[in-house]
Amino acid sequence: MASDDQGAVAPRVRAAVVGGGPAGLMAAEVLLGQGIEVDLFDAMPSVGRKFLLAGRGGLNLTHSDPHDLFMTRYGARSGDLREALAQFDGAAVRRWAEGLGVETFVGTSGRVFPKDMKAAPLLRAWLHRLRAAGLRLHTRHRWTGWEAGTGALVFDAPDGRVLHAADATVLALGGASWPRLGSDGSWAALLAQRGVGIAPLQPSNCGFDVASTRPGAQGWSQFLRERFAGQPVKPVAARLHAQPAEDSCQGEFVLTDTGIEGSLVYAFSAALRDEIAVRGEATWLIDLLPQHGAAQVLAEVTRPRGPRSLSTHLKSRLGIAGIKAALLHEVLSPAQLADPAALAAALKALPIKLVRPRPVDEAISTAGGVRFEALDANAMLRDVPGVFCAGEMLDWEAPTGGYLLTACMATGRAAGVGVGRWLRR
Ligand SMILES: Cc1cc2nc3c(=O)[nH]c(=O)nc-3n(C[C@H](O)[C@H](O)[C@H](O)COP(=O)(O)OP(=O)(O)OC[C@H]3O[C@@H](n4cnc5c(N)ncnc54)[C@H](O)[C@@H]3O)c2cc1C
């Protein structure tokens, strides 16, 4: 970063940061580093709740992808995030964590985790450093808009309405998933009233409901739900209907009461969601035998089985049993099961028809949000001078893999730098 981006601003300049997730905390850190006084407000009794939840399954901080590949994970928005991620990329995330005394490692999938996999020690050390740098933290303060006339920020706080005037404000209010952790997307209406362009908030990295597999039924059959909901299907590979088999991704997913979820589903969720929006449904193809070639599968299926049942034959020749066998019987008709060519093809590309994404409040993250066109080069809202935005509330999405936290912190940092530049203008 050029030195004029980091120099101190005039004394006693005050910034407000609203939202204490990774984006807001990073903005606060960069603001404090420029000698700006920072008050950080959060609606919840403590900050970083989603960050802590992310740590439950092993905090995936970032990814070790080479930079160009890393950028492709943001799809159509990679250009809008290029500058922020050039200044704070995966390597910078690792250095930042190590600066807080938390060593990281690269897992077999290329994902980066703290050595102890946890979020709490990292958040604790970060808050300690921020407080030591002078951060004033105001929890249980829900931002509800601006006061007419003065333009002061208005908060609902335990003792009633609180007004706060600042020279600049960073909004880092998160998306709309997991609202009980604090981010509920209610900011969208407040900003839309000020003329800010907002792309509709939608689920990202989400599960899906399947089309009914039996006439008159909803979603999976009762048998499949009762026996297998909550269980993983693995190993499998998956692809979109329009993709060639070579583009399949390996992994696992979970059967739910109404459909599917899990890491392999999330990798395709943006494309599936968008296809459903256009066509009303989308087909996800799963390869139940990723370690077997198509010719080998066909040879085994057509091999004479004598008096053995089809189930016994598939189990002994190809290891298809349990949840995989149940899925096969759920999706294929008796005629398809009896036709060796159709059965072999389905084992390598079982079509799962999806009809709707699960609601945004169940999703891992949110697509949509403040459009980049609504921001200037400093991440300031063109229609609301002095107000900057960062994190998941911006209109980008990415698959899981550490790309979410990296972009949240990178845009938080960019907003902090942007505030300093604007105040020094
Ligand atoms: C189960 C789960 C696991 C995840 N795991 C990972 C992972 O391993 N790796 C990864 O990269 N990403 C992961 N994510 C995603 C990641 O946690 C989020 O993308 C990230 O926390 C978003 O950061 P943010 O600062 O933009 O918003 P948030 O973390 O959502 O923070 C926003 C803050 O704003 C506050 N707020 C909202 N509205 C108001 C208001 N009106 N007034 C005052 N305060 C308000 C909220 O209370 C909250 O503290 C996971 C998400 C979930 C749900």
Q: Give the overall pLDDT as a whole number.
A: 95
Helix content: 25-40%
Helix/strand-derived category reads alpha+beta
Shape summary: elongated
How many helical stretches? 16
Relative strand content? 15-25%
Spans of at least 5 consecutive residues whose pLDDT stays below 50 are: none
Bound ligands: flavin-adenine dinucleotide
Question: Measured on Cα atoms, how large is the radius of gyration?
Answer: 25 Å
Spatial separation of the terminal alpha carbons? 17 Å
Strand order of the largest sheet: 12-15-14-13-16-17
Mind summarizing the main beta sheet?
6 strands, antiparallel, barrel
- Please report the total strand number as a whole number: 19
Report on the structure:
There is one protein chain. This protein has helices spanning 22-33, 49-54, 67-72, 78-87, 90-99, 120-132, 187-193, 222-228, 263-266, 269-279, 294-302, 310-318, 322-331, 334-338, 340-348, 403-423; strands spanning 14-18, 37-41, 62-63, 104-106, 111-114, 136-138, 142-146, 153-157, 160-164, 168-171, 198-204, 208-210, 232-240, 249-255, 259-261, 282-287, 350-357, 365-370, 387-389. It has 425 residues and is of the alpha+beta class. The chain has a 6-stranded antiparallel barrel with strand order 12-15-14-13-16-17. Strands 6-2-1-10-19 form a 5-stranded parallel β-sheet, with helices on one face. Helix 1 (22-33) runs parallel beside helix 16 (403-423), helix 4 (78-87) crosses helix 16 (403-423) and helix 11 (294-302) runs antiparallel to helix 15. The mean pLDDT is 95. Bound molecules: flavin-adenine dinucleotide (FAD). Flavin-adenine dinucleotide binds next to helix 1, helix 2, strand 7 and helix 16.
